[in-house]
Amino acid sequence: MFSRIIEILLVEDNPGDARLTQEVFKEGRVLNNLVVVKDGVEALAYLRREPPYVTSRTPDLILLDLNLPRKSGREVLMEIKQDQRLMSIPVVVLTTSSDEQDIARAYSEHANCYLTKPVDLEQFLHLVRSIEDFWLTLVRLPANEESGSAR
Hints:
The chain is of the alpha/beta class. The chain is 38% helix and 17% strand. The chain has 5 helices and 5 strands, in the order βαβαβαβαβα.
């Protein structure tokens, strides 16, 4: 288990999905700080600590929707995985698309996981709880350079 707060960046333009995800992580077993940004441009500004995110913390985990305004999740994923400072952050694609080409492309661009959002509310909540159980409880993440402790 972690001895510090886990930083999570949720890149999600659907307010309902963002709110549900926040609620699940708020009630979770692992102490976390979940930050929501609404599009790809905001996500990259947050990750690069550009205004208004100059004091943002490097996330331990990124939950990324593919279908985003202004800059797609695919573009965000490519930029994250090409950036030496960001490339080791696990990226979980969490999207409505179940298209085989989207899945193959996400993995070819080095997504760490691809999950399709279920339409059913209970299944969606179960999926988000599963993300927490796996990524924040079972997986050993690389050390976060800001805290020096294991992610």
